[in-house]
Every structure is written in C-alpha cells, then in structure tokens.
Here is the input.
Amino acid sequence: MLTHAMQYTITLPADYDMAVIRRRVRDRGPLTDDFPGLVLKAYLVRERGVDGSPVNAYAPFYLWGDSAGLGSFLWGGRGFGGIVTDFGRPTVRHWIGAGLAAGPSARLTPRAATLHRTVLPDGADPAGPMAEAAADLAARAGTAGVHTTAVALDPDRWELVHATLWEREVPEGVLGDRFQLLHLSAPGLGEERPSELELS
Here is the structure.
C-alpha cells in the first residue's frame, strides 16, 4: 500500500568528494532495509557533469505505506536526525501516493532512477490529469528495464511526481532528472510483488 512519497535534497559543493556519500550509503543504507511502514527508500545521488547534472547532490526518495512510519523517521529518532546533524535540516518535499507498479525488472537490482515533475494546468479539475497519470503509470510499468514506478501528487503546488527505478542506465528519451541509485531498501515491496496497483 502506498500512501506518501517524500524526498529531500542535499546540494553539495562542486568540488565535493562524492566518495563520502557513497561510504555513507554503504554503511547506513542497510539500516532502513526493514524500517516499519517503509515501502522503499532509494538512495539517490547526482554527480556534477554526469547524466547532465549541473550539481552534486544526495537526494534520497521514499515511498511510505503509512504516516506512522514517515513520522517515526522524521521526528521519532529513527534516522532523520543523522541528516540534520551532518548537513542541517533540509526542506522535505511530500506528495500523496497515488499509484505504484512493478516493472519487468522488478526482481533485479536497480541502479538508476528518474524523477519527472509536472504541474497540473492552472485551475484544472485534477480528475483528468490523474486519469492520464494512471495511463502513464501503466505504460511505464510495461517498459523494458523498469524495476518499480510510482506516481504521487502534491496538492499544495498541484504537482505530480513520476518516480521510476531502472535496472541499469536510463534509456534515451526518458523525461526527468536522472540519478544513480546506490542502495535500495524495499521492505514494503515484499517477495510477491503485484504487477500493478491502481491509482486510488
């Protein structure tokens, strides 16, 4: 069950040694492998000059199955405090989960991700764009190389985020920011994965 999506981005100096972040993920990533309420956490990075990125950044992306788990992470002493201590408290973006689907590579280890944000037309009834998002989700779930794909909505900005994890490199022509995926914690996906969960 998907109820929330969440992301914060730590933008780092242009000359930052990204090996520091890689060690951090290697050491701390497994700590969320069985985090209660977590569907998945994708430990994402961008490196300046790689895949068109203008910046170095650490930008983990989360899908949550319930608000209790999200709260436990942010203020319950279960992880976010390390970010605050080491980098300061970042702004945390939050979306309402709308759909989640497994792709053809769901049982393989993903190595890349894309996040594509779109703003709903000004003043539009969200029913139409959400129906289109459902169709897009189904189409992306059938794309070769997709591990998992999800869509979520921020009703403050009326912004949709389409998040997709990829087995290997992101294919040419795929829209959105591209990330390297260093580690995936996915306690909420389970062994028996559904082929698709409808938008709710």
